[in-house]
Structures are given as C-alpha cells and as structure tokens.
Amino acid sequence: MILRATAGLLALAGLAAAAFYAGLTRAELRVATGPPGSAIQRLVSAFVQANARLHPRVRIVPVEEAGLRASAAALEEGRVDLAVIRSDLPPPTNGMTVAILRRDVIALVLPPHSPVTALGHLAGRRVAIPAGPVQADDARLLDALLDDGGVPAAQVERIFAEPEALVAAVREHRAAAVFAVGPVGPGAAVDAVAAVARATRGTPTLLALPEAEAIHRRHPGLEPSEVPVGAFRGRPDVPAESVDGLAVTYRLVASRGMLDIVAAAVARSVFTARPLLTASIPFAGQIEAPDLDDRSPLLPVHPGVATYLTNGDQSFFDTSQNYLYLGGIVLSLVGSGLALAVSHGHRRRAARERLLVRQLLAIADEAEAAEAARLDGLARDLRGIVSAALAKQAQTGPGSPLLGQAIDHARAAIRERRDALGRG
After folding, report:
1. So what CATH class is 103-250?
2. Phi, psi of 80 (to 5 degrees)
3. Cα 121 from chain centre
4. Chain segment 123-156, per-residue pLDDT in tens
5. CA 342-344-350 angle, 5° bins
6. What is residue 293's three-state secondary structure?
7. Fewest 10 Å CB contacts: which of 95, 168, 286, 372?
8. What is the distance between the alpha carbons of residues 295 and 220, in angstroms, rounded to a whole number?
9. What residue ranges are annotated as transmembrane (predicted)?
C-alpha cells in the first residue's frame, strides 16, 4: 500500500512538472538592489516594473541592502536569488553573471597644469571624492590604486564632498584632484569634470594609467579601458585625446544553483527591457551581454544565460523541453524501480503465505489422530499462526483466500477431533 501510494504521488508530481515546464517557467526571484538612493538601485527598480510587463511569469522582488558588499553577502548566504555587484569588490563565491548593467570609468580628474602625472605623485596631497551611496567603496578603490602606485593610503588625505563643495575644494586648493567612478555619460565622472572646470575656469585633464594592464592582472575586477576623446565633456573635449585607464563593471549575478531556464528567462527580460529603461534611465543603454569568450572570468557566465545568448529564444524553449524530457526519464526510472519493488514484495508475501498454508495443513492432518494434550498444543500453534497472519495483513492488506480457507480447515479438524474424544 505504501509503495503504491508513493508511486501514485510520483505520477502526480510528474504531471505537475510536465504542466510547469510545458507552460514555461513561473518563478519569484529576490534581487538585492545595492545602496539606497544609488543610480543602480533606480535602474533595478525600473527593471522590476518593466519585467512585470515583459515577462510576468518571472516575478522580480527587490530587496534593499545597505551596500554593494551587503548585496554580495545576501546572495552568498542564500537570502536572495539575484544581486547587483561591482567587480572591484569581493564577489560572491556562488555568483554567476547574467548581464553587465554598466561599465564605469575610474577617473582621477586634475586641474589644468597639475603637477600630478602619476599615481605616485599623490603622496602628501588631498583627494576629493564625490559624496554618495558608494563613497566608501570608491575610497577603498582609491586605496588599491595607491597601493599599486607605491603610495601608502595614509599619505593621501581624502575628503567627501557634494558637487558644490567639490568646486570650492578645488578652487581653494584644498584638493589636488577629484577621484570619481562613473559611466561615460551622465554620472559621477562627468560631474567631477564639471566641478573642476567651474573651479578653475579651465579644461580639466584625466590622469592616464599606462600601467592599467598590469593593475588588471593583480586586480581582475579592474578592466583596462580606453577613455575616448570627449567622453566626459565637449567644447573643449575632456579628455582632449584618448587616455589609457581602468573601469569597473556593475553586474547582475545569479546564484550558481539557479535553474538554467530561470536564468535564461531573467537574461531575456534584461535585454528585452533595455530600450524601455533607456527612456527613463539614460545609462541603461550601456546594458550589455557578458563576454562568452573570456577564458578567465571573474564571475563566470551562468550556463542558462550562455545558452540563451548563443541560441536565442529557440534555445529558451528547447531548455523547457529538455527539463520535461529529463524529468520524464527520471520519473520513468523511479516508476520502474517501484514496480520491481512491488513485484518483489508480492512474491515474498506469496511465499510466506504458502509456508503458512503448509503449516496449517500439517496441523489439520495431525489433529485427526491427536490425543487431548497434543490437541491443545495444536490449537495454540493455530492461534499463533493466525495472530502472525493478522499482524502482517494489518501492514500489507488482506491476504489470499487460500490462507483463510487453510485456517478454517485447521480449526474444523481440531474441533472435530475434540468432539470425537468427547464422545469416546
């Protein structure tokens, strides 16, 4: 009975799985959005709304975390299914890339005619950092770059300032440079260039990092990036000529354990929503697919996303069928195993019942000529066999009619012999 019930439940589970995958994925996913009030949080909020229209089968639920490090920890601890991380920060050990949401240039903005021409020249000077939700992360990034330049972080004072305060700090020579991390377009880097230009009434410059490739090898989360002419300002252009630099990426990452079909659905939503998001979040146009050819990625591309990017929507549908097919195979194997177990159980039960029938027939045969004392012993043996049979049937269900007939035959034989002895 238990095995039959289990087989029935597995059959129902198989039907439910078939219905689930035949209708494609339905899922509710929690995403850690990062620092409150940040541009990335606004992007994720806009994506959640767009996804509800474009892919209602996959519901995205934003989970606000205190910072980017907290977002990575939330994914690692299993409190969320997706998270936005920045590549220069320690990545979650179980994270896999779904999409690159933004690529931010690391800009060290200098006043005109600045004596600073290398990272090492910042020793003993003060650097301003735009105040905001990621200022602590930007400060740690500056420390890492200074360390590569051979400058102890303690030798470079830093101040955190709002845009107007940045202008004053540069104008009053309280800051030798402004360190900003932002996209090519509206953002922190453009604002820093504008602040230095206002403070000096001149054309700011960007510190070139010719050692960018070497820094990347030591810090894989920092990618070499060429800043094009006029990336941060036109008329006059800033920079006036292309500059070797570094960039960090904001990535949407999924847990390694996420089903391929679900990860593919999320990627599809992200890339489909990009045109809608750009209307309200300009830098959303920078959303890009991860590089499938990168042989040593910091955060590998999720296999489901890689399949989707390689084969597109057809792959997305095929993946659903694959899950259904594999699920059917597994359920079929489990069902076959249960059938064998049930068959083996039936054979064992039949063998036990045949043994009991033979014992009962032996009791009946012996009872025909037994004396009174022996007859009492045969009656006790009969009761023992009946008790054992009833206990077994309570677990496995009713036995065969033959067993019942054998019990009746043994009882009748004992009763008839008692009657005969009584008459004698």
Report:
1. alpha beta
2. -135, 165
3. 44
4. 999 999 999 999 999 999 999 999 988 999 999 9
5. 100
6. coil
7. 372
8. 12
9. 323-342
